[in-house]
Amino acid sequence: MxxxxxxxxxxxxxxxxxxxxxxGSGTPAPSxxxxxxxGAAVSLTGSQSKEGGLTKQGYDLWLDWxxxxxxxxxxxxxxxxxxxxxxxxxxxxxxxxLVEKLITVEKAQFILGPYGSSATAxxxxxxxxxxxxxxxxNGAAQSIFSHGYKYTFGVLSPANKYLTGVLDMAATLNPxxxxxxxxxxxxNFSLEVAKAVADYAPSKGMQIVFNKSYPAAAPDVxxxxxxxxxxxxxxxxxxxxxAEAIAxxxxxxxxxxxxxxxxxxxxxxxxxxISSLGPDANYxxxxxxxxxxxxxxxxxxxSVADYVKAYxxxxxxxxRSAMLWPPSML
Length: 330
Known about the structure:
By secondary structure, the chain is an alpha/beta fold. Helices cover 37% and strands 17% of the residues.
C-alpha cells in the first residue's frame, strides 16, 4: 500500500516491522508470547520455481534472524515466528486459493507475498476480502496498487523504475547509444516495464526501433531475436523473468546480435543466470533491490557475510555488486 493511510493497521505494521532491541534499563525483561503465524504461497515448482526458491530463501533468512533474537517484540513480550509455506506451482490462480487456505485453515495472521505480479494481484484480492495484511516484495506492477487496497503493502521498486536507470547510465556514455530493441513478456509487470522504457527513452535522446511482446515463458525466442537483430539496436532490453532472460541472452549470442548494452528486468542478479550463461553473463545489467555498496538503515538489515554464510552464494553477491541500483527502493 504505497502512500495510503495506515488507519487501523498501525498495530499490525508495528508487529511486522518491530526490531527486537533491548527492553530498556527501566523496563522488565520481555516475556515470551504466543507464536505469530505468517503464511506464504510461493513458486517452489513450475516455470518460476527459481525465483520462488530465492523468495523463500529470503523469508527463511529473516525467520532465522528474528527467532534467534527471541521473536518479534510486542508490548514487552517476544513472540516467536512461524512461516507456513504452500507451493503455488507458478500458477496465479492457485496462489490465491492457497492464500485463502493459509488464512482460513492454517490461521495465518499475516501473509508474505508470492513471486510475481500476477500471483500478487490475485493474492491481494484475497487478503483484502479477509482483512489480513500482506507484505510483498516481488509484485512490482503498479496495477496492483491502483485498486485502493488497504491490506497490501509493497516494499520494492515499482515496475516503471526497473530499467529506466539503465537508460540514465547509457546516456552518460560517449558515444551515447541511441537505439533500443525492447522485448517484453505479455504479463502486466513486463508490459509496464516496457512501456516505461518507451516513455522515458526520448527524454534521454533515445528511440525505440523494435518493440515486441511474446508469450510468457516462451520456449523459443530465436525468431524474436532475429527480428531485433535486423533493427541493429545499440541497446537490447528484455522485460520478463529468469527463464526468458537466459533464453534471450543465449539466442543473441548464437545469432550474432551484438548490441552495446544488454539489460533485463529480471535475471542477471540471480545465481542461475550466471551458472547457465557462464562468461556470457558478464556485463549484462538489471535493476537490483539490494547491493552491498549501500549502507542501509536501520541496522537490522543483514550483511553480505550473513547472506554468503546462509546460502554459500558468493557468486550471487559478486553479481549483485555489479548491478545498477534503482532510483527508489520503495
